[in-house]
Amino acid sequence: MLIYRITEEHNVQIEDEKFQGLINQDLQEIINALKAAHFEVRIVGGAVRDILLGDLPRDIDLLTNATPDEVIYILSSHEIEADVWGIKHGTIKAVINQVKYEITSLDFRIYKDEHGNLKINETGTWADDAKRRDFTINAMSMELDGKVHDYLNGINDLKEQIVRPIPNFEERIKNDPVTILRFFKMLSKMPQPRYSKKTLETVKRNIDLVTELDAKRIRKELMNIRKGINGTKTLSLMRKLGVLDLLNTATK
Question: How many domains does the chain have?
Fold first, then answer.
């Protein structure tokens, strides 16, 4: 893992040289545009996990307290192209030099109230956003100076190699079955991963849902699993549980 020091409860400060130069010129342009408009910006999710593991993340996703509309306006005012395909999930993609960078608005979501009326939530906190993610090790956010905010004890789980889902795990799987493959991807990233019996039982109970996934997405996740330090053992577990057979059927 990277070198870091504890700054306060549940927060750490990354001090490793590998963190330097992580943000390229195009990403910095996006960050500068948001900060110039007086909005906060953090790196979020899997990128923070990989940084703490000592790996350079392939993709860096940003989280901001600007709303999607504000992000679109800011990007356009800086002549940066905005891809709005994911706006219903609060995500705008900034496009620079044909590369897309995800910018998600803090705890933004569209939902139905008790009367079935569509509502928009855009008043969440950084901690609220962390609770919307899948696993504790993916729920951390990091300021641009290397300060990591950990609301759900993800740093300790990462240190102990524990893949711990955030509450409402089964509901999350039913809403987005790729969560099952993300579980196995997390296992593949650790030499000796640990998980609870309850977590595995939840995965087993919903395994058939992977057949609903797009073939392209399945192939992408399987490739990521194979590349993991624990990829071989993870694939063996998936074979034992019948996941690989289901995925093979889904991609035919």
Answer: 2
